[in-house]
Amino acid sequence: MMTSPPTPINGKLVRSVGLWGLTAMVFNGLIGAGIFGLPASLANTSGSWAPLIVVIVGLAMLPIVLVVARLAGRFDGTGGPIEYVDAAFGKTAAFQIGWMQLLSTTASAAANVNLLADYALRGWGPADAGPTVHAAVVLAALSLIFIVNLNRTNGVARTLELLSIAKLGPLLLLILLALPIIAGNGGAVHPATQWSPSEAALLSAYAFTGFEGALTIAGEARDPKHDFPRALVIVFAGVGLVYALLVWAYLATAYVPGAVDKAPLSSAATVLMGAAGAILLLATATLSIFGNVINNMLFLSRRLLALEALGGLPVWLGRVHIGSAVPRNAVIFIMAVLVALSLSGGFAALAILSVASRLVVYLGCIAALPVIERRDGRPASLAGNAAIVAAAATCIALIASSEAKSWLSLIVAALVGAIIFSATRAYRLRAAPATG
């Protein structure tokens, strides 16, 4: 089928990513490292109820996805939630949303690079690998991720498509092999080690976050208003089903009440496929985390671009390379930050922001949608308003369940963000006459 050539956007970014590329980005945002440890945590806290809890929580999170999908159908610029909140509430609020995303995603990426090194060394490294070897693997992984992100965005998308297939295939194979056991054991009762359905629900909810990251690159998608809503809803529903079936597969094959299982899917694969299954799942986990960090570096660099466009960051971060249509300065800056945080362990201080900052982003989107729809003269239907209310209720429930210290850290981060935004805008306003 013939496709039109990429279209330059404002002489900078290029619209080159199609539906499958966007789908791969949403998929890699949702499935990173968490799913490979989640089944054991859910089984220990809710036993046989774990798969049902995953489904219920997925349905509770779905209104948030629907709200974000409606916003995605209205905008086509770089930034995603940054652009939505800017349109509804202005640049100051938009910068805070982007700043929170920047901090939490940076912490997540740095933590996952270390986890990637752990998995790689566990499977293929020397038995006595020390901190120096671990650091070398971290640097090698980041270097490869950096090289991938220097490519055109459609090239990064193709890499993510291949990684999506590489990690989804073994997970589906695991589910298929477990189905006969699940069917034969349908009535078996698996007791929880420590009954806590609320903790299981919270763990499930956090596993469903990350879908919003891909929206950042809407400015490089061919038809984001058409493709993003479909990619979000289809991938979210599919991942929810995969999560529930993987938990069920673990319960039916490898769950031992009271046992500590740090690699539950690997345990299930060992039961179903022997030692080869364990190696396959280890490789799958490594590739999954690799894809997730590629995703994060891509989104982080474009987020810097969006924040610079608000006037809140130095101009040089917003420059796009003419030949590759890639914001190389932003990619290099993110690479330097990730190297520093990954090797120093500094990401742990930012990790506490992850949950609270995502909830702020979701609430910002939920609040922005009715404002934008009223302004456009297209108020939501009864069903649309119901989705907004349900999405807000889910966020409030998650806020009530989260730790107070994460919100204190968020307030401190917001103050730092406000200072950066105000100082940079003031400097750029003073410098404008001299450069203009």
Describe what you observe in this structure.
The protein is an all-alpha fold. It has a single domain, classed as Amino acid/polyamine transporter I, CATH 1.20.1740.10. Helix content is 74%, strand content 1%. It is built from 16 helices and 2 strands. Strands 1-2 form a two-stranded antiparallel ribbon. The longest helix is centred in the last third of the chain and has 35 residues. It is globular and about 75 Å long.
Q: What descriptors fit this protein?
A:
Amino acid/polyamine transporter I; mainly alpha; 436 residues
How would you sum up this structure in a few lines?
This protein is an all-alpha fold and 436 residues long.
